[in-house]
Amino acid sequence: MKYFICLFSVCILMVSCTENTSKKIATETASEEINCTDYLSYQGRDDQATGGIKMVPIETPKGTFNVWTKRVGTNPKMKVLLLHGGPGMTHEIYESFDGFFPQEGIEYYYYDQLGSYYSDQPDDLSLWDTARFVEEVEQVRQALNLNQDNFYLFGQSWGGILAMEYALKYQEHLKGLIISNMVPSIPDYMKYNEEVLAPQLDPEVLATIMKYEAAEDYGNEEYLSLITEHYYPKHVIRIPQKDWPNSINRGFKHLNPDVYVTMQGPSEFGIKGNATLKDWDVKDRLHEIKVPTLAIGAAHDTMDPKQMEWLANEVKNGRYLHCPNGSHLSQYDDQEHFFPGLVSFIKDVNNNTF
């Protein structure tokens, strides 16, 4: 009911906006404007019966599995596929987009990657491989009929790694690329974490965390409590834990530890052990990305914002968006900068004014 009320409110807003030419919702060109009725309608779509949800079959070396997607809105020129982080997190961390994309007429897709809560969760660790995930995204793109005329790929954190890898192989299918809160080098991220972020913690808290890290006692309740009470509120989401949005709590509750530990490792304080992402680095290949690219960094992020700005200058056609009040989940703790900058990028690319 709450979601219906939200959409109904958006509809009223969008109808009123059609009377004001300064607030056109799609491309600011009357011939391409998407009105409220068209944007919210499912009529004639193959996902009408499911309210936008489509289970997409994915071919893998270990068989065929299904992944969950959900479309919100309709716009033939601006379609955004959201790649969640983790790895093994869910689309739920992007539910804040419901408050900002619809009134801009942007069509967007929630998507749980294979292994994540709403999709199939096969019990085979060999599937948690970056190259295989890239092929999964390509199959999802095809199933959703996204192409170079409308396809914007948004990836945050691990999703940013996946987005960069996808662009390096399949950028001919992209209209725009958004890399949010993810630097192009895990070793650089680890160095920033150790040399810049860790010293910002209370010395006693840091010493206790490092004691558990050294013992590889990552499941210890005190260790987890210190991370969530002291590290997360500074660098992951700058909101007191008791006030975290329900969508964030659900996302953490639904995280698949098998995917997460295989790729990210067991530590909550960096990438450790035999994690498959431990040595990931594409800095030397960024110049190959020619599609319009937005890099989003945040002042309090776990990722170095200066390196995000460097990334924007390293690709052929980049722009940097800085969130001065944000951390790793800037879509929640710095919405006043995150969403206007993101929407402007999408519309500028769409209008050929990027």
TrEMBL record:
Signal peptide: none annotated. Transmembrane segments: none annotated. Residues 80-334 form the AB hydrolase-1 domain. It holds the Pfam family Abhydrolase_1. The keyword Hydrolase applies. Keywords: Hydrolase. The keyword NAD does not apply. InterPro entries: AB_hydrolase_1 (IPR000073), AB_hydrolase_fold (IPR029058), AB_hydrolase_sf (IPR050266), Peptidase_S33 (IPR002410), Pro_imino_pep (IPR005945). It comes from the Bacteria. One of its GO terms (molecular function) is hydrolase activity. Belongs to the peptidase S33 family. NCBIfam families: pro_imino_pep_2. This is Proline iminopeptidase-family hydrolase. It comes from Jejudonia soesokkakensis.
